[in-house]
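Sample intake sheet
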Amino acid sequence: MAAYSLDLRKKILSAWENKENTQRGIAKRFKVSLSFVRDFLRRYRETNEIAAKPQGGDRRSKIKGKDEELVKTIVEAQNDIYLLSGAEKSGKG
Protein backbone atom coordinates (compact mmCIF):
# COMPACT_ATOMS: atom_id res chain seq x y z
CA MET A 1 0.00 0.00 0.00
CA ALA A 2 1.30 3.43 -0.90
CA ALA A 3 1.89 6.05 1.76
CA TYR A 4 -0.72 8.74 2.29
CA SER A 5 -0.02 11.98 0.41
CA LEU A 6 1.66 14.95 2.01
CA ASP A 7 -1.45 17.01 1.22
CA LEU A 8 -3.68 14.63 3.21
CA ARG A 9 -1.20 14.62 6.09
CA LYS A 10 -1.23 18.43 6.16
CA LYS A 11 -5.05 18.48 6.25
CA ILE A 12 -5.13 15.97 9.12
CA LEU A 13 -2.53 17.95 11.03
CA SER A 14 -4.40 21.22 10.45
CA ALA A 15 -7.69 19.70 11.66
CA TRP A 16 -5.96 18.38 14.79
CA GLU A 17 -4.14 21.66 15.53
CA ASN A 18 -7.41 23.61 15.10
CA LYS A 19 -9.15 21.17 17.46
CA GLU A 20 -11.82 20.51 14.83
CA ASN A 21 -12.54 17.02 16.15
CA THR A 22 -11.20 14.09 18.14
CA GLN A 23 -8.62 11.79 16.59
CA ARG A 24 -11.43 9.32 15.95
CA GLY A 25 -13.51 12.03 14.25
CA ILE A 26 -10.56 13.18 12.14
CA ALA A 27 -9.93 9.59 11.04
CA LYS A 28 -13.54 9.19 10.02
CA ARG A 29 -13.61 12.56 8.23
CA PHE A 30 -10.53 11.80 6.13
CA LYS A 31 -11.36 8.09 5.70
CA VAL A 32 -8.17 6.79 7.29
CA SER A 33 -7.71 4.47 10.23
CA LEU A 34 -7.65 5.73 13.79
CA SER A 35 -4.29 3.99 14.28
CA PHE A 36 -2.83 5.97 11.37
CA VAL A 37 -4.00 9.26 12.90
CA ARG A 38 -2.65 8.30 16.34
CA ASP A 39 0.72 7.15 15.00
CA PHE A 40 1.01 10.10 12.62
CA LEU A 41 0.29 12.67 15.34
CA ARG A 42 2.58 10.93 17.84
CA ARG A 43 5.41 10.95 15.30
CA TYR A 44 4.71 14.61 14.50
CA ARG A 45 4.87 15.58 18.20
CA GLU A 46 8.11 13.65 18.70
CA THR A 47 9.97 14.57 15.49
CA ASN A 48 8.06 17.46 13.91
CA GLU A 49 7.99 15.37 10.68
CA ILE A 50 4.88 14.88 8.57
CA ALA A 51 6.39 13.11 5.56
CA ALA A 52 5.97 9.36 5.27
CA LYS A 53 8.75 7.22 6.67
CA PRO A 54 10.90 5.48 4.08
CA GLN A 55 9.50 2.10 3.10
CA GLY A 56 11.37 -1.08 2.40
CA GLY A 57 14.09 -2.79 4.29
CA ASP A 58 17.70 -3.76 4.02
CA ARG A 59 18.12 -5.30 0.58
CA ARG A 60 21.69 -6.53 1.10
CA SER A 61 22.38 -10.24 0.94
CA LYS A 62 22.26 -12.24 4.17
CA ILE A 63 24.79 -14.69 2.71
CA LYS A 64 28.34 -13.86 3.76
CA GLY A 65 31.89 -15.19 3.58
CA LYS A 66 32.43 -18.78 2.46
CA ASP A 67 28.70 -19.30 1.83
CA GLU A 68 28.65 -16.33 -0.53
CA GLU A 69 31.62 -17.69 -2.45
CA LEU A 70 29.96 -21.12 -2.68
CA VAL A 71 26.75 -19.65 -4.12
CA LYS A 72 28.75 -17.61 -6.66
CA THR A 73 30.67 -20.73 -7.71
CA ILE A 74 27.49 -22.78 -8.12
CA VAL A 75 25.72 -20.07 -10.12
CA GLU A 76 28.72 -19.55 -12.40
CA ALA A 77 28.97 -23.29 -13.03
CA GLN A 78 25.23 -23.84 -13.55
CA ASN A 79 23.70 -20.49 -14.43
CA ASP A 80 20.48 -22.12 -15.69
CA ILE A 81 19.49 -23.70 -12.37
CA TYR A 82 16.54 -22.47 -10.33
CA LEU A 83 14.96 -23.10 -6.95
CA LEU A 84 12.05 -25.50 -6.82
CA SER A 85 8.86 -24.37 -5.15
CA GLY A 86 7.34 -26.41 -2.34
CA ALA A 87 4.75 -27.91 -4.72
CA GLU A 88 7.42 -28.96 -7.22
CA LYS A 89 9.51 -30.59 -4.47
CA SER A 90 6.58 -32.66 -3.28
CA GLY A 91 5.65 -33.71 -6.80
CA LYS A 92 2.40 -31.71 -6.84
CA GLY A 93 3.57 -29.00 -9.22
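Comment: The two ends are 31 Å apart (CA to CA). Helices lie at 6-17, 23-30, 34-47, 65-77, 86-89.
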